Amino acid sequence: MNPATLTAEAVAVRLLASELEGEDLDLSIESETAFKECVARVVDEIRELETMGRAIADRQTELAARAERYAAREQRLRDVLVGAFATAGVRKLPLVEATVSLVDGQAVVKVIDEAAIPAEFWREKTVRMLDRRAVAEALKDRRAVPGATLDNRPPKLQLRTR
Fold it and tell me: What span, in angstroms and rounded, lies between the C-alpha atoms of 130 and 14?
């Protein structure tokens, strides 16, 4: 290797070492031209970080799936309690850790035939959209809206901590 190349590599090693100071990388200069070794150490660290990044992304996917399973299980337990409350004829149960109440579901618009809903209940933008709020208000005012009816949501379980 010619002296110019050795000098350039030595400068590059010093530059690497100073730029990566505090990065917890051992880039100590063992000889005047440790360029190849320093680059190898940085590449190893890059590969390690890539591996760790992929592992974290995989773990996040696993945790998201677990969170979905927990949410589904929570909903199932709530549904079971709603059924138990209905069977027992209980609407409210004070406990040490919470007060459990069965509250009525909120009325929502259930569209049976969207095409039959009159024009006054549609909003025009770039895309035609049903104005569910206007339909709901009309139905709550006991006005007939062809193609729609009010449908109660099922009861939901409410927990209040003390």
Answer: 67
